[in-house]
Amino acid sequence: MIAFAASRISRDAAEDLAQEVLLLLHEKYSHIEQLQDLLPLCLRILRYKMMSLHRKAHRRGEYNQVSSDEIPLAALDPSPEASLARKEIADRLVAGIARMGERCKELFRLKLEGKSFPEIQALMGVHSINTIYTWDSRCRKQLMEWMGGGWEKRK
Fold first, then answer.
1. What CATH number was assigned to the domain covering residues 81-146?
2. What's this model's pTM, rounded to 2 decimal places?
3. In this predicted model, what pLDDT tens digit does every residue of 67-89 receive, in sequence order?
4. pLDDT of 79-118, one tens digit each?
5. Residue (of 63, 43, 60) closest to 1 by Cα position
6. Where are the domains of the chain?
7. Which terminal residue of the chain, N or C, has fewer Cβ atoms less than 10 Å from its own Cβ?
């Protein structure tokens, strides 16, 4: 039984399937005792289990898998070009914030700390939250103008 299965699948899988077949014969077909009846039944069950194993492997995509050694790894570090572009944007952002007034600098600092607008309102001692929204809009607009109208450099 193992030799039959090993001729079509790996030896380990063949041994596992043979054990499953023997267990099934013991549980469901214990009433059959003649070898001439057991052998065809055993091989038929084994054939069904092998087909099931192949269907499962096909469903899981195990036949067309690519070895992990053949897959190129993505570089974790950004490219030098992307690093330079990011540094230029950061430099323009820092320069733009340095030109801003104290109120805008404080508003950006609180936003970068993760504070919500109601928390910023309380910390800055403003009576209306709409004032905070207006200040934020004006500060962002002014910063964008000083950065050239956007995050990316205009050409």
1. 1.10.10.10
2. 0.45
3. 777 787 777 788 888 889 889 88
4. 888 889 889 888 888 888 888 899 999 999 999 999 999 9
5. 43
6. 2-60, 81-146
7. C
